[in-house]
Amino acid sequence: MNTLLNFILLKTFITVAETGNFTVASQHLNSTQSTLSQQIQRLEALVGQPLFIRGHRMLTLTETGEVLFSYAKKIIALNDMFFMKITGNAVIQTLRLGFPEDFASGQVTPTLAAFMHEHPNIRLEVTSGLSRQLYQHYQQGALDLIIVKQRKGEFKSDYRWPEPLCWLTSANNEYLNADSLPLIVFPENGLYRNDMFRLLDIEQRPWHITYTCSSLAGIQSAIADGLGISLLPLRAKLPQHRILTEQEGFPAAEEMEIAMHVHDSSDSIKVLAERLARQLEQL
Fold first, then answer.
1. Paired residues of 98 in beta bridges
2. What predicted TM-score, i.e. pTM, was given to this entire model?
């Protein structure tokens, strides 16, 4: 009798193969790297051959791994289709999407909700994160469509929209400490952070970081409450904010862009991309 493959091990194998490393795969599966490594070892023992070539940073499939990857996706898909069929909710496709926090929390959700209602057999899996992280996952094949913020022309895309930046302070803050400007910033590698430092250094204006936050909503709130100033997209300006001008010593920042990147793997992802594009045109 042939060996029976474990579905949990197959799902782990598919995720590791698609992401190329245990770190990203563990984030997708809400597990630990050591657990996933042990599961892959168990699967390799069942198959009787190695499934991955373990490089310094990335994992690549062996010839046996390539064969198993093709069959594993079909096995899992058939399993899902069976259970969805008997419950009357057959899912024929899953689309994996990635958006920055401000888009995932309201800018595109009405379009996603309408798409889900019109396509009950398509499942959406949405991930929110920093633009650079989302683009890395997209390159690794872990996401089918992403919307990110990037420098003009940084990554080629058929869908791009301008994203002007502005300096913001509290609407009630009429005085800025001339000795050192308090800055509100995203964490390391966050957008706009280094631009702020560079522009102020060019103007020879002393500064210090007073508040660091990975959430746009948190940064908006900190600005409104008068904790400091920040460089953000113009569309992120709230009524409690005031724009700081060049006359006040805040140089204009280079315009960024919003870009949508799509793996054109199916008609459904193309339809969703066009709908999202129409939504973004209205920003």
1. 127, 146
2. 0.64
